[in-house]
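Q: Protein required for attachment to host cells, please. Structure only.
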Amino acid sequence: MSEKNKKQFGVWMDSHHATIVGRENVDSGAFVILGHEKVDGQGSNSSENAANNAERDLLHKLFKNISAHMQNVDELHVTGTGTAQEQFIKYLKETPQYKNVETKDSTSNKMNDESLIEFIASQFN
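A: Structure for Protein required for attachment to host cells:
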């Protein structure tokens, strides 16, 4: 499979926000912003256990929302702050339709949309 026909995506994320980048025509064209996803923080919980479960559930909801933008992904570069990108890659590996995705990750501060598009494009050149 040539580089030009691979479905390549990039995601900047932390534990509450994500910006998804992909190609205009799924497998060709310039990279563009496909969407922004956000999960709202949880309210107060009666116990630490309930708080941890709620946080995990919110993160999984974010992962599902991100995945909805990336159908038939071949290559993915995930970047961001904290450990959310590592957890997202683990989530993908445990999801049958994404288990064969070639993933790379890096750490980076929040970028504006244009900078993120340039960064993701440079990862696939």
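A: Brief note, in case it's useful. The chain is about 35% helix and 25% strand.
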